[in-house]
Each structure stands twice: as C-alpha cells, then as structure tokens.
Design a protein that fits this description.
Elements (H helix, E strand, L loop, with lengths): L2 E5 L2 E4 L4 E8 L8 E6 L5 E7 L7 E2 L7 E6 L4 E6 L8 E8 L9 E4 L2 E4 L5 E6 L1
Parallel strand pairs: 2-12
Antiparallel strand pairs: 1-3, 3-8, 4-5, 4-9, 5-6, 7-8, 9-11, 9-12, 10-11
Length: about 130
C-alpha cells in the first residue's frame, strides 16, 4: 500500500523557516509526480506546490511563490518543501500527495491541477506565530 510520512513541521515565528520531508513507500516513487497541499483549521485542502517525477518541473501556488522550494531525492524516496519567510497564513497541516489511483482507500482526496490526488499520510503541523 501507499505510505507517505510527513515530518519537519513545528512552531516558528513569522519570517522563519522550516523544511518539510515526505518519505514515501509502497509505490515506484521515481516515476510519479508529487504535490504538497495544506489544510488550515476549518478549511479545505489548498494546493501548495507540484514537482514532476524527474524533479525538474516545480510549480507553486501564487501564495507561496518565491518563498517555498519543492524538491525531491528519488534515491531516497523523499520529497521536500523548504519554507522560508513564513507567514501566519501558512499555518496549516501540510500533506504530501500523489495520484489517487495508486491505491484504494484514500481518505484525503484532493483535486489540484485538474488531477485527483490523495494525501495518504497524517500530515505535519506547521504553526507560524506573529
């Protein structure tokens, strides 16, 4: 089964930085695109960033462009999100996600970039204080 384990979240003050990691297993990580999404309290999932399988086509939501950097290390089955210049509006649980069709039983379905994704893991909390 698909397993995605997020880590690296924490508490920071505005202007600070965090680096999130997503460790993947249960599928051939190096041939699949990945995204980061986030969910603020009481809100739906918000698309944050995309990276293709080869890691050379990053995309970002306008809200994080210029502040966040997505990357991946396919040899380690890992996805990363470097978050700089954090704002209070970035406070959310952050999830990595891959294609929903990889497996059954998705409980966190996300439509982003006109593609169905699934955030298979538990996410990692990012809290940015003013």
């Amino acid at each position: 089964e698909v397993h995605l384990v997020e880590s690296g979240g924490g508490f920071v003050q505005q202007g600070g930085s965090l680096r999130l990691s997503c460790n993947a297993s249960g599928f051939q990580f190096n041939i699949y695109a990945m995204i980061w999404v986030r969910q603020a309290p009481g809100k739906g999932f918000e698309y944050v960033s995309y990276i293709n399988a080869g890691g050379n086509t990053p995309r970002y939501a306008d809200s994080v462009k210029g502040r966040f950097t997505i990357s991946r290390d396919n040899a380690k089955n890992s996805l990363y999100l470097q978050m700089n210049s954090l704002k209070t509006e970035d406070t959310a649980v952050y999830y990595c996600a891959t294609l929903e069709g990889l497996s059954s039983g998705c409980l966190r379905k996300i439509q982003a970039l006109n593609i169905p994704w699934c955030a298979w893991g538990q996410g990692t909390q990012v809290t940015v204080a003013s």
